[in-house]
Design a protein that fits this description.
Shape: globular
Pfam families: SSF
Family: Belongs to the sodium:solute symporter (SSF) (TC 2.A.21) family.
CATH architecture of one domain: Up-down Bundle
CATH topology of one domain: Sodium/glucose cotransporter
Radius of gyration: 24 Å
Main location: membrane
Keywords: Cell membrane, Ion transport, Membrane, Sodium, Sodium transport, Transmembrane, Transmembrane helix, Transport
GO biological process, one term: sodium ion transport
């Protein structure tokens, strides 16, 4: 993912110096394609917002007993409040501290859990004996939920589609002073996320080690799998003063950080790409501030409402991957079509976007509906209740015949994103050929990825004195209206230019 983002996508944004990633689609195709991608991005973030709220809500509820809907509402109000009042500066500064707290809390819980479990040896031996460490599942079936191919291929496309063209990431890259530093930020991000996810996976082994002989879901300690880590923390190190609070602070830090960034980026896209780009409204600075703040409040209300829907679904990871794959896969497919297929044209891009959205949406929502109806069940590993305090028996293993379920609905959630990307590129390329491909000689090489420059005719490389450095000017101009007070809007650009924002260095890296 890091190599693909740094070498394929990022140099294009650097050369064009865009403020919003979706500006590229207008440069490469037309305003209609830009509008479609912008609307899909907003839909994607709307689906993602309730997930951000629900995760800390169930953790807090597990620790305190407070209703999850009350917690999610409070989280949303707090984040919307400081985002509206403090603007970009508040989001950046709080982001930095929230991420630090998140890392510290998870690492401390893992360290204490390891000590409680008497060291690494016992943890890994128990996990191996219980069949929880599986690296070699090379089953080629796309119905296998967690095969080696599904994780590697699906994971590559999922992470690449988000980190390459999503506005929440591109605005960070563009806030850095040069292409080289932006590429370094991708490397730092990759190292950080690999370490963090590795720690989270190890936390999963700690949970299994503790509950290997008494499944908490069967025992009635929790009502769904997403409560496993919170209940583990309370039952192992919850007696240590401050640890439950630190754990909850870490979970809340991750939620507030993600929530504020999503609100920022979505408000930016609504203002710049939809209100101004799609509807061609010319707004004053004061009107722009009103649009942005209204958008944030509405998004917060939608997120809290959708939590009621999310709690009916099972498994945050698969739900998040499934619903976000719809827009992420299609949008990434559009950018890839534009950057890597020189002869693609606007008609092909439009057809590809429609095909990608239909395919990924069909699979995603179809599978979720099938799970909700009970036609599909999660493929779970064996559990035990041998050491549970009360006499319990595991339910009989029931064989579910899923052969009657539509094949696409049975696919592993890892394949939804690659299918969306592949559908967009394939249909877009074919339709472009059928409707008259773009004359490659008339294209500017800057709108195409440098990995294919050696295959382009010399007419694509007009003499230019521009360098490849990113610039803060566009970023400052684009973010001027973002969440700042109308009286402070003029200062936002200056703050960003003076280095106060440094979003790439602060929030997520």
């Amino acid at each position: 993912m890091a190599i693909a983002v740094s070498k394929v996508y990022l140099p294009v944004f650097a050369a064009l110096r865009v403020g919003s990633s979706y500006e590229y689609l207008e440069m490469r195709f037309n305003p209609t394609i830009r509008s479609i991608a912008s609307i899909m991005f907003v839909m994607d973030e709307i689906f993602f917002l309730p997930i951000i709220l629900y995760v800390p809500a169930i953790a807090f509820s597990q620790v305190t007993g407070v209703n999850t809907h009350i917690v999610s509402g409070v989280i949303c109000v707090i984040c919307v409040f400081y985002t509206l009042i403090g603007g970009i500066k508040a989001v950046v500064h709080t982001d930095a501290w929230q991420i630090i707290v998140m890392f510290i809390s998870v690492v401390i819980v893992v360290i204490l859990g390891t000590i409680y479990a008497d060291g690494f040896t016992d943890i890994f031996k128990t996990a191996a004996d219980g069949g929880r460490i599986i690296f070699g599942n090379i089953n080629p079936s796309p119905y296998e939920r967690q095969s080696l191919w599904a994780v590697l291929i699906g994971g590559f496309f999922y992470w690449t589609s988000f980190n390459s063209v999503n506005q929440t990431m591109v605005q960070r890259y563009m806030s850095l002073p040069s292409l080289k530093k932006a590429q370094w930020s991708v490397a730092i991000f990759t190292i950080g996320i690999v370490l963090f996810i590795s720690v989270c996976c190890f936390a999963g082994l700690l949970v299994y080690n503790f509950y290997r002989n008494c499944d908490p879901l069967t025992a009635g300690l929790i009502s769904n799998d997403d409560q496993l880590l919170p209940v583990y923390v309370m039952q192992t190190v919850g007696n240590l003063h401050g640890i439950p609070g630190l754990f909850i602070a870490g979970v809340f830090g991750a939620a507030l950080s993600s929530l504020s960034v999503v609100l920022n980026s979505t408000a930016l896209v609504v203002l710049e790409d939809i209100v101004k780009g799609c509807f061609r409204f010319k707004l004053s600075e004061k009107s722009s501030a009103i649009v942005v703040k209204t958008c944030i409040v509405i998004l917060g209300g939608i997120a809290v409402s959708l939590v009621f829907v999310l709690e009916k679904l099972s498994g945050i990871l698969s739900v998040a991957t499934s619903v976000t794959a719809i827009a992420a896969g299609t949008t990434c497919g559009l950018f890839t079509l534009g950057m890597l297929v020189p002869w693609s044209n606007p008609k092909g891009a439009l057809a590809g976007a429609i095909a990608g959205a239909i395919m990924s949406g069909w699979i995603s929502f179809g599978s979720q509906i099938s799970f909700a109806k009970g036609d599909l069940v999660s493929q779970k590993l064996p559990i035990s209740v041998a050491d549970c305090p009360a006499n319990m028996t595991l339910p009989d293993d029931t064989y579910y015949d899923e052969s009657d379920v539509f094949p696409l609905y049975r696919l592993s959630f890892h394949w939804i994103n690659p299918i969306g990307i592949a559908s967009t590129i394939l249909v877009g390329t074919v339709v472009s050929f059928l409707t008259g491909p773009t004359v490659v000689k008339k294209l500017d090489a800057d709108v195409l990825s440098p990995v294919i420059h050696k295959f382009l005719p010399k007419e694509c490389f007009p003499p230019s004195d521009s360098d490849s450095d990113l610039t803060r000017e566009n970023t400052a101009q684009t973010l001027t209206h973002l969440l700042g007070n109308s009286t402070a809007g003029a200062n936002t650009g200056a703050e960003i230019d003076s280095g106060e924002d440094n979003m790439g260095k602060g929030a997520k890296y």
